[in-house]
Amino acid sequence: MIKEGKVAGRGVLLAGQPGTGKTAIAMAMARALGDDVPFAQLTASEVYSLEMSKTEALTQALRRAVGVRIREEAEVLEGEVVELEIDRAPPASSLGPGVAPAAAGVAAAAATPSGRLTMKTTDMETVFDLGAKMVDALLAAHVTAGDVVAIDKASGKVTTLGRSLARSRDFDALGSSTRFVACPSGEIAKRREVAHSVSLHDVDVVNSRSAGFMALFAGDTGEIRPEVREAIDAKVGQWREEGKAEVSPGVLFIDEAHALDAECFAFLGRAMEAEAAPLLVLATNRGIVRIRGTGHSGPHGLPPDLLDRLLVVHTRPYTGKEVERILAIRCEEEDVEAEPDARALLTKIGCETSLRYAMQLISAASHVASRAGSARVRMQDVSRAYSLFLDARRSAAYLVRLESRFFVLFFLLFFLFFLFFFFALRYYFRRGKNLQNALSFISRLSPKFSHKINNQQVEFADEYMMNEAAVEKGEDEMAA
Predict the structure, then answer these.
(1) Could you tell me which residues come within 8 angstroms of residue 252 by beta carbon, excluding any fewer than 6 positions away?
(2) E-only strand ranges, 179-296
(3) Residue 34 falls inside a structural domain
(4) Which of 196, 218, 242 is the last residue of a domain?
(5) Number of Cβ atoms within 10 Å of the Cβ of 270
(6) Is 220 part of a structural domain of the chain?
(7) Domain at 367, CATH number
(8) Number of C-alpha atoms within 13 angstroms, CB side, residue 297?
């Protein structure tokens, strides 16, 4: 559907648990489409920026996923290279110290490389004189006798089409990427149709900046005025009617789609109705959650009207055999040779924890094995790496244990402080039976309340002395 251009107004939602291959599916889709079909990738958090609005960021991402194939006729020289001769004059330093500066300048000008190129087709053969730039272009393309090349006369771009079939037996050892083509027929100078593929966003940037084409390398494109986009859309529509251009919708992949808000969802729903809209692929790992920007909840954090337009694809967790196969491919990519026991242990770890954690243990176990002097990863190397680096579940359990220890220590310190305070007060009351000493002690422990205590010390002391006098008088009366 994507290659045939039947994707306007369509969308796909990849929903599943974390680590079930949603992003991998999108990347595989991009590889399968090739370079001719544009593929734009975006994370939902990239939309929120202080430099541009959310709708502008989504607009640039959508236009980056729409390609324009522009056709034009160009004059090219196409044929088989029969002979390539390059003449290089000796450097000026070899002329000797007695040479005059003017003569040295003439010698330096003569030192620029030049040459002759002999090309042929099945009908004719021609010799061309080469300048310095053309010599550099041929040397950069590593052109040799027997190559079939195409040279653009306007720009001087050299394209190697392959090796001639007549030269297939000249060498015994050839790489697997060597391509053999037949010698071209007809004239060497031809007019052929050349297609250039660009995205609509690239055209927007070129036409909205004074730097032109160099603005693509600046990085910071900023916001583009709607008038520029309208003019570009009108021009591209005119080229389509004249047959000079072809619009090819691509794919826009938005990861963590639940992080978008209601405004973004409304904008995407409207953008999907455009004529040349790309295929919208969303990925999320959420269930029934609140839709950002609203007080309502929805499946996968998406509003119902947008969810109704999407084809929902649920991804399931990997099985044990699939985890084992993925880890084996990962070992080959990282050039790690592991024993069968080590692979079985990695597979078990990947099934019990997560596939990402098991893939990260491969390089760690390889380093442990190299430190131990082993060329292959053994089971004890994987166990050592597993004990050194924690996964998410063990890390959470460690934090829970640490938190419980912290609370126990806090309550123990609080209890000890309370006991110390209680026995200190009891000691002061029993020793002097003087409330003044107890109040002074409390004021020293709590300087914050010392001013309140000092104001009440005299009243407390007088009341205490009156009580003591009354008690002594009562005891005297009882004794009498």
Answers:
(1) 40, 42, 61, 62, 64, 65, 278, 279, 280, 281
(2) 180-181, 189-199, 245-249, 251-255, 279-284, 288-290
(3) yes
(4) 196
(5) 11
(6) no
(7) 1.10.8.60
(8) 4
- Say if 225 falls within a structural domain: no
* Total length of the chain: 480
Residues of the domain holding 348: 320-389
Residue 290 lies in a domain: yes
Rounded to an integer, what is the distance from CA 47 to the centroid of its chain?
A: 14
The token duo for 194 is 């050349």
CA gap 94, 111 in Å, rounded: 11
* 460 and 348 in a common domain: no
Contact 19, 257 (CB under 8 A): no
Give Cα 26 to chain centroid, integer Å. 13
Residues 6+ apart with CB under 8 A from 79: 119, 120, 121, 126, 148, 149, 183, 184, 188
pLDDT-based confidence at residue 282 (cuts at 50, 70, 90): very high
What amino acid is encoded at 345 in this protein?
L
User: Which CATH number do you get for residue 59?
Assistant: 3.40.50.300
Q: How confident is the model at residue 92 (pLDDT cuts 50, 70, 90)?
A: very low
DSSP state of 188: S
Between the alpha carbon of residue 52 and those of residues 200, 273, 391, the distances in Å are 19, 24, 38
Nearest to 257 by CA among 199, 312, 296: 312
Query: Which residues, 6+ apart, have CB-to-CB distance to 330 below 8 Å?
Result: 359, 362
Reduce the DSSP state of residue 200 to 3 states and report it. helix
Burial of residue 46 (CB within 10 Å: 0-12, 13-18, 19+) is middle
Q: How do residues 385-395 score in pLDDT, each as one tens digit? A: 999 998 888 88
- The larger pLDDT score, comparing residue 276 to residue 286, is at 286
**Residue 382 token pair:** 């994987």
**Cβ pair 346, 391 in contact under 8 A:** no
Reading the block at residue 450, the tokens are 């010392």
Phi, psi torsion values for 131, nearest 5 degrees: -95, -175
pTM over 0.70: no
